């Protein structure tokens, strides 16, 4: 059943949030509700979902990805090492700084995972 919830998390990131604020707010509410179900949306399910979401090379990361990472870190703090090793580095490859909303989320994730994120931050290109 945990795998199904991981699939749900991935599916919520495939929603066309550019369709309007109602869709975006609905997806955010669904993510918040999912993370409140800690016994169902386990650390393992979240890690699998995050891995799938960043594994798509050549595409812009989903808008809600970093919100999800922050929720994951809030509800499953043990995921900090995983996030710094497996989620944030591919976002550098995707040049996440080209989208202000994604970039702000990236910075918040780095702040939340200090000192582990220091190794990620040194991978950023110089200005």
Written overview of the protein:
Helix 3 runs parallel beside helix 5 and helix 4 runs parallel beside helix 6 (100-112). The mean pLDDT is 91. This protein is 64% helix and 0% strand. With 127 residues, it is mainly alpha-helical. It is built from seven helices and no strands.
Strand content: under 5%
Rounded to an integer, what's the Rg over CA atoms?
14 Å
Classify the secondary structure makeup into a structural class.
mainly alpha
Which parts are unreliable, with pLDDT below 50 for 5 consecutive residues or more?
none
Element string (H = helix, E = strand): HHHHHHH
Helix content: 55-70%
Helix segment count? 7
Shape: globular
> What integer is the average pLDDT?
91
> Termini distance?
45 Å
Would you report the number of β strands? 0
Q: Mind describing the biggest β-sheet?
A: none
Key phrases:
single chain; mainly alpha; 7 helices
Summary, kept brief:
With 127 residues, the protein is mostly helical. Helix content is 64%, strand content 0%.
Question: Helices and strands in order, then pairings?
Answer:
Elements: H1 2-12, H2 21-36, H3 43-54, H4 65-75, H5 80-93, H6 100-112, H7 118-121
Helix pairs in contact: 1-3, 2-4, 3-4, 3-5, 4-6, 5-6
């Amino acid at each position: 059943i945990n795998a199904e919830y991981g699939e749900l998390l991935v599916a919520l990131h495939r929603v066309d949030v550019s369709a309007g604020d109602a869709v975006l707010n609905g997806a955010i509410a669904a993510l918040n509700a999912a993370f409140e179900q800690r016994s169902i949306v386990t650390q393992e399910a979240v890690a699998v979902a995050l891995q799938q979401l960043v594994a798509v090379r050549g595409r812009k990361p989903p808008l809600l990805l970093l919100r999800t990472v922050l929720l994951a870190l809030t509800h499953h703090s043990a995921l900090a090492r995983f996030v710094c090793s497996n989620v944030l580095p591919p976002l550098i490859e995707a040049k996440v700084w080209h989208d202000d909303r994604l970039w702000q989320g990236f910075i918040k994730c780095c702040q939340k995972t200090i000192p582990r994120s220091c190794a990620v931050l040194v991978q950023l290109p110089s200005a």
